[in-house]
Amino acid sequence: MTKALVLGGGGVTGIAWELGVLCGLQRAGVPLGDADLVIGTSAGSVVGTVLTAGIDLEIAVAMQTASTSDGSGSGGGGAGRVLTALAVLADPSVPVMEARMRVGAFALSAPTRDEQSYVAGIASLLPIRDWPARELRITAMDTADGRDVVFDAASGVPLQLAVAASCAVPGLMPPVTIDGRRYMDGGIRLGAGADLAEGADQLVVIAPMAALDPARIEAEMASTGAGKTLLIAPDEAAMTAMGQNFMDPARRAPTAQAGLVQGQALAEAVRAVWPG
């Protein structure tokens, strides 16, 4: 039986909440670290790396209160630029691939920090330098043509570059150069990347931004053919803790705590899908 765990995007608060949920489930006796496949997008690529590296989740959650820096150097500004990109993607009059290419052009032209220091900041968040032994897939998007790209251990792409590309929010972070091409946040594909778990028997999706388009994520999950599935979205307490700015590092601690509580409360629901 193949178990797949999908971790969606959601910025700094998304990382904190996902770690909290995973740790809360672990405390309740339902660890998801035994997944055969982990798929991470943006925030989920960071959390997926932590999980597949075998890092103690208690320590990972504790670190969410250790500092107010997220390592990306994005700070809390730039929200208007992010909304500009989202508005393009949400416009039904613009064909999907054209919208992605427009966002790609925007990402390339937006004023951000330099690429080298950004990648170094992301690398500082990661507990390992090499790809983990457990299967981890990380999503990103080509700025030039809008195509989806999935990086894994077989891709030959360094882990820190794959994660940095997946986290490169248009307007906030610079696109990341890999083999002469520039890549941006995998979350631009919208959804959660659950469709990449095709063939899984058991599927759990943890999506910080599920409220934006739950139907899309549910369609992704259905496309996998998995017999048992569960979508975990932030509950009301978690949404309050996250606030309106998903890149606000000051929200990390309360969001991680909300995730811990929610994860423990979800133990039975997850156990029904993900038996030990």
UniProtKB/TrEMBL annotation:
InterPro entries on file: Acyl_Trfase/lysoPLipase (IPR016035), NTE (IPR050301), PNPLA_dom (IPR002641)
GO MF terms, alphabetically ordered: hydrolase activity
Keyword list, A-Z: Hydrolase, Lipid degradation, Lipid metabolism
Motif DGA/G in this chain: 185-187
SUPFAM superfamilies in the record: FabD/lysophospholipase-like
Endpoints of the signal sequence: none
Motif (GXGXXG): 9-14
Motif annotated as GXSXG, chain positions: 40-44
PROSITE patterns, per database record: PNPLA
Protein origin, superkingdom: Bacteria
Record has rRNA processing as a keyword: no
Pfam families per UniProt: Patatin
Catalytic site positions: 42 (nucleophile), 185 (proton acceptor)
Domain PNPLA: 5-198
Gene Ontology annotations of biological process type: lipid catabolic process
Name of the protein this chain belongs to: Patatin-like phospholipase family protein
